[in-house]
Specification:
3 domains; 772 residues; 22-stranded antiparallel barrel; 6% helix; mainly beta; 6 helices; 5-stranded mixed sheet; Maltoporin, Chain A; Ferric Hydroxamate Uptake Protein, Chain A, domain 1
């Protein structure tokens, strides 16, 4: 018998001979394919002249089976660690412009930016390092925002509610892994043209995706061009009163109006060669360039107290460039052993300049401040993974390693020119240069075990070591050094109530951590923008910070429906040791007078716990669960429904209540949405709403912050002219409401209050989607 070569991932070629006695797997060939081949052979024999009989020979038949990736519901059901998968269908459903717009509608995900203005995603209300963000399994490059990625570049998004040994232990709240387009399964040549309008400004965009497979070579390429214009505005009111008699010491409004133009282009892709049976090599480049030009005016309305100026005109330019190249080699050896090696290099640069011309109330120039800044990052990474099934496939043992090394160089200069022409260099940064180096090494092992058809267990252990060094270039100042070592065991388990059933119970017991950021560790201070007050302090680093360590427990019940729906109820708890929080104190910074400086400190222990509810189903399937449809009843509309509710409670033990919660974690968040395919028409309608109520946080013994309610309503209409031509109209942030936040400081002699109002608007977009 001839041994077939390894088939491509998306097509398996099975060769067999027509000799008697064939048994085993060949009997499992699809009967329809065998019957079709037999019928074709009979027809061929009837249509050709009779030829002399030939000795019987073995003939080779070719049967090609196309395999597709399991759907998102199946992947979620089969995963041992709790995971949500967002596939291509959901990525394209709303016509979102960025990946963050997709994430804001997911259960338990909130954004820290203003409504309708994007922001950093947070799982379980926890950001700032508690939520791990990955791209293709690697950490997000420094300086890069998820707003730079479009859904067209993404194959899928995986949201894991806890850490695993393979994805990393820096995931106290969980991990969001954005997987870019992978090896091609079908030929693509898609073009999307979009035109949006936000706050009266036009936003054009273009996306092109090309993918093809040519024998053993497959590639995909995506290019995205975007231009956005925005008018922005905010109001900051600062009030300072004396504690003794309530007299006003300062009452000031700072009004900022700005207009900006941003252009960006990013391209990415994957080129993969199949080198043989089970062996492949891939290159994954990614390029990004964005430029921003802005101009604005700041006005100070001072009713009590004093100010250095009355108004200021500002302008600036900034740019960000990033180039990234990853390589991956995979092979499969005898016994099911799989090896994977990968390496990558990333380089980025951010540069910019700004000008501010300050004037008095009569408009006479007082001074001009010019600032130039430049930052460069260079990172090298490598890693490997070996996995092998054991005990007749019921064990999958994997172990791996990662090594990452990087350097950052940053410079900034600020020059102040007075009205009389005299100049001086401002010492606002306490040093004009910053150099830092970081190295991270990790080893991990993970075992997937299925002892019975109803039980699945994943056990893992990960050890990480991070070394960071930095210097500010100031003579006599020692180099800051921070070293941390963390060993994190993790255990996840799934119990299926029935063998092969759709009802299951999940549990997880994990150790995770949050490493201090570079900005938190390096002892470089930055002057406050405006008067130095306890409510508006300078900022500095702390090289002696320790990582936050978290012990986590997760429990959940899931009921999966036949048509992809799911009902889920889960609870979680995290106990965090060595919590990091900024503390404000008077310090001697070299000036004649002491200044208020905010520095991060390890302040003790905190706890966070929560309840998470999720429901997703088709209307007809949901109605059938409640009551079987009557015979002859009209079918229900083709509507997909989804809803989620998350409730959070947290407490910082070193602070007295009330509201001594973790910073930026709301009390709860909720979301709902529906998609309606209008029967008999090529029209699909959809809408979603997310809601986060206002909350208050006790930051320390004297500082308290409040955040206003956030709600975002999105809607879209999709008209399908043909499978290759669609028109989409969408609206984001309907019923827009401004954001309001307040910080209050109760000092020994004064109370200071700063309230910020941020403007919000509705964004409209029209997108033409074509398959060429």
């Amino acid at each position: 018998m001839n041994t077939p070569k390894k088939a491509p991932r998306n097509a398996r070629t099975i060769a067999r001979t027509n000799t008697p006695g064939q048994r085993g797997a060949r009997l499992l060939l699809p009967l329809a394919s065998v019957a079709a081949l037999a019928a074709a052979q009979v027809q061929a024999q009837e249509s050709v002249p009779t030829v002399p009989a030939q000795p019987p020979q073995a003939t080779l038949e070719r049967v090609e089976i196309r395999a597709s990736r399991p759907d998102e519901s199946h992947e979620r059901r089969q995963a041992t660690a709790a995971k949500t998968v967002i596939g291509r269908e959901e990525l394209e459903r709303q016509g979102d412009a960025t990946v963050t717009e997709v994430l804001k509608r997911q259960p338990g995900v909130t954004l820290d930016g203003r409504p309708g203005r994007g922001g950093n995603p947070r799982l379980r209300g926890l950001g700032g390092g508690y939520t791990q963000i990955l791209i293709n399994g690697e950490r997000l490059p420094m300086g890069m925002s998820l707003d730079a990625l479009t859904p067209g570049q993404v194959e899928r998004i995986e949201i894991t509610r806890g850490p695993t040994a393979e994805t990393g232990a820096q995931a106290v709240a969980g991990t969001i892994d954005i997987v870019l387009r992978e090896d091609v399964r079908q030929r693509l040549n898609d073009l999307h043209l979009s035109l949006g309008r936000d706050d009266g400004r036009w936003q054009p965009g273009l996306s092109w995706t090309r993918a093809e497979q040519i024998e053993d070579l497959s590639y995909n390429l995506s290019v995205h061009l975007r231009e956005s214009r925005s008018d922005d505005g905010s109001l900051l009111r600062t009030v300072e009163t004396t504690q003794a008699d309530g007299q006003l010491a300062l009452d000031q409004d700072r009004v900022d109006e700005s207009r900006s133009l941003r252009r960006s282009v990013h391209a990415g892709g994957r080129v993969q060669w199949r080198l043989g049976a089970g062996e492949s090599f891939a290159l994954m480049p990614f390029l990004l360039r964005s430029e921003n030009v802005s101009a604005g005016r700041r006005t100070l309305l001072t009713r009590a107290g004093s100010a250095d100026y009355a108004q200021a005109d500002t302008s600036g330019e900034s740019g960000f460039s990033l180039a990234r190249l990853n390589a991956q080699w995979q092979t499969r050896l005898e016994g099911g052993l799989r090896l994977e090696l990968r390496a990558g290099a990333t380089g980025s640069r951010s540069d910019g300049s700004s000008r501010r011309t300050e004037a008095d109330a009569a408009g006479s120039p007082l001074r001009r401040i010019d600032e130039e800044r430049d930052g460069r990052d260079r990172w090298l990474s490598t890693g490997g993974k070996a996995s092998r099934p054991l005990v007749e496939g019921r064990h999958l043992l994997a172990l791996g390693w990662e090594l990452e090394s990087g350097r950052r160089d940053e410079s900034r200069s600020t020059l102040q020119t007075e009205a009389d022409g005299s100049t001086r260099v401002l010492d606002g940064d306490f040093g004009d240069t910053l150099q830092s180096r970081s190295r991270r090494a990790s080893l991990w092992i993970q075992d997937e075990w299925t002892p019975t058809p109803q039980w699945s267990i994943q056990a893992g252990l990960r050890h990480e070591r991070i070394d960071t060094r930095g210097s500010t270039g100031i003579a006599g100042q020692a180099e800051a050094v921070n070293r941390s070592r963390v060993t994190a065991p993790m255990l996840h388990a799934v119990y299926r109530l029935e063998e092969g059933g759709r009802s299951l119970i999940r549990a997880g017991l994990t150790r995770s951590y949050k490493a201090p950021t570079l900005a938190q560790m390096i002892a470089r201070s930055t002057r406050a923008n405006g008067s130095n007050l306890e409510i508006n302090p300078d900022r500095g680093g702390n090289p002696d910070l320790r990582p936050e360590l978290a012990t986590g427990l997760d429990l959940a019940w899931e009921q999966h429906l036949a048509q992809g729906g799911v009902f889920s109820v889960g609870v979680f708890e995290r106990r965090i040791d060595d919590l990091i929080r900024n503390q404000v104190a008077l310090e001697n910074t070299g000036d004649a007078a002491l200044r208020w400086v905010s520095r991060p400190q390890n302040i003790g222990r905190a706890r966070s716990r929560g309840l998470e509810l999720e429901a997703k189903a088709r209307a007809a399937e949901l109605a059938a669960l409640i009551a079987p449809p009557a015979e002859g009843a009209a079918p229900l509309p083709a509507v997909d429904l989804r809803a989620n509710l998350s409730v959070y409670r947290s407490r910082v033990e070193s602070l007295s209540g009330p509201d001594n919660r973790l910073d930026n974690q709301p009390g709860w968040s909720a979301g709902a949405g529906a998609d309606w395919r209008v029967r008999g028409t090529p029209l699909t309608l959809g809408a979603s709403v997310s809601f986060t109520p206002g909350y208050a946080v006790q930051l320390d013994a004297s500082r308290r912050a409040t955040v206003d309610t956030r709600q975002v309503i999105d809607a879209y209409a999709l008209w399908t002219f043909a499978p290759d031509l669609k028109l989409r109209v969408s609206a984001s942030n309907l019923a827009a409401r401004d954001s309001v936040s307040t910080t209050t400081v109760d000092g020994a002699t004064t109370r200071q209050t700063a309230t910020t109002w941020g403007r919000s608007s509705t964004a409209w977009a029209v997108r033409l989607e074509m398959k060429l």
